[in-house]
User: Fold this.
Amino acid sequence: MTEEILEIVMPAPRTLYEILDLRPDATQSDVEAGYQRALEVFSEDSLASYALFTPDEADRVRKEIQMAYSVLRHGPSRSAYDAALAAATDKAAATLSFTTIWEQGASSLSDSTMGTPLSTRRPVTAEKPAEAAAEPEAAAVPTSSAPAGTRSSTGRMLVIAPPVEDVPAAVDTVSEELPPLPPPAPLETAPVVATPSSVPVSLSPTEPPAPAPGLSAYPTIPPTEFHTLVPPSVAAPTEPPSAVPMPAPAAPPPAAAPVATPVAAAPAPVAPPAPVAVATPAPAAAPTMSNPPGGPRFKRVRVDDDAIAANIARAVVGPVPSATSDAPLELPADGEINGSVLQRLREARNMDLRTMAGITKVGINYLRAIEANDFGELPARVYLRGFLIQYARALRVNPERLAGGYLAFADRYRKEIR
Amino acid sequence: MSAEGQGRIIAVGGGKGGIGKSLCSASLSIALARLGNRVVVVDADLGGANLHTCLGVLPPLVTLSDFVNRRVEQLEDVLVRTPMEGVSMVAGAMDMLDSANPTHQQKQRLIRHLLRLQADYVILDLGAGSSFNILDFFLLAEHGILVMVPEPTSVENAYRFLKSAYLRRFRTVEKVYDIKHLIDEAMEQRNERGIRTPLDLVNAIKATDAEAGSALEQEMAKMRVRLLVNQVREPADAKVGDQIRMACQRYFGVNLDYLGSIPHDEAVWRAVRAKQPLLQHSPGSPAAQAFFPIAQRIMALDRASIQAA
Assistant:
């Protein structure tokens, strides 16, 4: 609960530069120095901060510092952020949106690449189908649909896949899982695209570093984390590609299909060929046809779900151009109403989280948690319902349907996790 | 020199007693005078005046008390000269009983006269504590210098002082902009909206009413708090000033200007024992020398603010 409050207490109120007490023209060594200095100021035994901040608050500030550093330390991610800042009129809001996206990208990256050898990461975010085809699992798949199928099998990498030309529509859709925010359009794909190999290490300074030899090392994520672990076989680079329904390149996926996708792709209890270096085609990694029905218990992975949900939302709501932001919005008639659907609706209204918070008077971090399906961060059902009603009113959609739909989704989800 | 011959007011406070406020006021006044300014230093420590000793002056016959209680009409009438060229002084009230808590009227009159003094700088040596009277003088100043020593007790008191000053300023702005209802509303939902620090509150008000929030933000940013770290013993202590600036930025959303630090120096103790100004008794001592860059920093800030205006 404390953490929950803190989340709201410490919105990123400033630019990432300000968090590290830097000027926007700081050199990389300035960034390093600023990071060290900021850590010192908010360290537990700091004379300068102990009387101003409670330990929890200081902890929160330290996280903020880590976040700022993780973006600013790399040229590409920093450039992306700079571009976002330059494009934004409200710097604080830009930072907020950027870091939200960044965090999502980060969690997806760090989770899904945890068990993967570093050397395989770059190919995973392949920029060209040809490059992807170099991977064993891709090679086993018809070239046209390779990127789509293989990516979805390993889950969250979809989120950070760069927008690629000459790639089947399905991939394109997926790569936009985080839809562009109204003001700084190019920012959400840029940072993650730019540093595929280096980001995972730096992004989650509080998390243990990625284990080197791949799958044998099971990612250790703190139990409090909402993310459920992907069973090794799911993350396995040898995941049977054919288990994944391949949408035809030209045809957009049917609305319901994507949901089934990861579940269907749910791992067969294949003993994962542990330390396979994917970069070199491994003949041993013969595609195993998994049989979903009898498969092991599969825990859904949040970001993966979101990617799928976003696709549903896209399919149901359709891409809503900003010009229609005043047009009536419809909730998906029969689709699941989850966080991503809400997010899409909100963005269709051209509202950023801050605006939404201002209208609904619901704390921005509750809003964020709602959209991220982060139920652990949300208050008791009755309050959540109140939030959702406010949210729906702000969107001018049917409050009962939105709240009811979301709560039903949340209930299902909670049951599933248990 | 500012317009109309008015002095720029420098208030020296810090919440805690015994951290060298009077010594800093005296030394700073001398340093500023040596740099070509006419300086009046006022012992506004209404409860425990001893600035005169730091300036090498015997307890004067006329004090601030005479002015406050209207035994004299003009503040100039209680101005006394000091051995230091360019520095004159208003001694503190010795009969503190009736002066420690001046009425609102008395205070307004004092402020009026302070603003009219013919000087380049008017330095107010404030007493310990965070009472309204002290805070009001601090907030009035062009430069509110917060003196602290790198010790937990002093840092805690300095923060308490700063919080009180911030709140006091906040209340004034709140009246001016008539936004009390917004603040009350935000504070009622402080838990739901996670309002813990002053910065949170300003942000929350901005979210509700962007215009009022920006006005509030701008007004609060006008707090001209400067930081002076005294009695620095270790190299690590020298960092404390900058660290406190960063912590305050995060907490209050207000930019402090870190003026610099004064090293711990036995010469200070010897000068006080000799009842002489530090800069006269041991002009070459590290502590005495440290006041010059600080004086220059203050003058540079003034030049910058003149240019900005």
